[in-house]
Write a structure and sequence with these properties.
four-stranded parallel sheet, Rossmann fold, about 240 residues, alpha/beta, 8 strands, 2 domains, single chain
Length: about 240
């Protein structure tokens, strides 16, 4: 049984190597035997990685998508790849896990980010009205991620109001935040991404361009959080027990 961690990636450039380093560092203390594959890559695409293992005789695969919600890549791209291999090999089998963002422990990670932001804010203003804004990737074609992020925010145990918005799609934060900012002195913004990379920087630039009336406190994304590692291992254990 071969375990493959599936990441979005990029077709060209150094990002995929950085992602591999990130993932191996995150799971360095675990004994999980895995390979990293990308949905976009010229050398380590999911199809190429599966092909290499099939050539060595492997026919059983555990796929753990390092994707947060059930948008295009989770709902369409990965199933199409699995179906293509099943059409070629009668004896091949796949098990694949749920996305990371719907795991119950993701609530704990967001709450931790908010607590850390509160500590940084403590000595600046004595009286404030604060809200939490969680921003994920989003999709123009799939509404399911909107629902999943909203569900996550509803499960947060916070003193602050919490809002769920996206970088892309019908819930794009640029549409809503100017009105939200009028109601609060401070906004704690939690980017819900695997790591602080291109998309998180894009969110920061867009937030700056909005010139909101609230003071912004932008937390780190998931990064090398030990709880993210625990979620990945939990998804793996669920596949083993299935």
């Amino acid at each position: 049984m071969q375990t493959i961690l599936v990441v979005h990636g990029m077709r060209k450039g150094p990002q995929n190597d950085a992602l591999k380093t990130f993932i191996h560092a995150l799971l360095a203390e675990d004994t999980l035997d895995f390979e990293v594959a990308f949905l976009e890559s010229e050398t380590s695409s999911l199809e190429q990685v599966i092909d290499r293992h099939v050539a060595r005789g492997e026919r059983d695969f555990n796929l753990i998508p390092l994707l947060l919600f059930t948008a295009l890549h989770y709902s369409v791209d990965i199933p199409e790849i699995m179906d293509a291999f099943k059409a070629r090999y009668d004896d091949i089998s796949f098990k694949w896990s749920l996305p990371l963002g719907t795991h119950p422990d993701m609530v704990d990670i967001v709450e931790k980010r908010v607590r850390d932001a509160r500590i940084q804010m403590r000595d600046t203003v004595s009286e404030r009205r604060t809200a939490v804004v969680v921003i994920a990737h989003g999709s123009f074609k799939f509404q399911r991620p909107d629902y999943e992020l909203e569900t996550l925010c509803e499960q947060l145990s916070l003193d602050e109001d919490a809002y769920a918005y996206m970088l892309y799609g019908n819930k794009a934060f640029e549409t809503y935040l100017p009105d939200i900012a009028e109601r609060y002195t401070d906004l704690i913004v939690v980017p819900l991404f695997l790591y602080d990379g291109y998309l998180v920087n894009k969110i920061k630039r867009k937030l700056e361009s909005l010139a909101l009336s609230s003071t912004l406190h932008i937390t780190p994304s998931l990064n090398l959080d030990s709880m993210l590692r625990d979620i990945i291992i939990s998804r793996y254990q669920t596949l083993k027990e299935y």
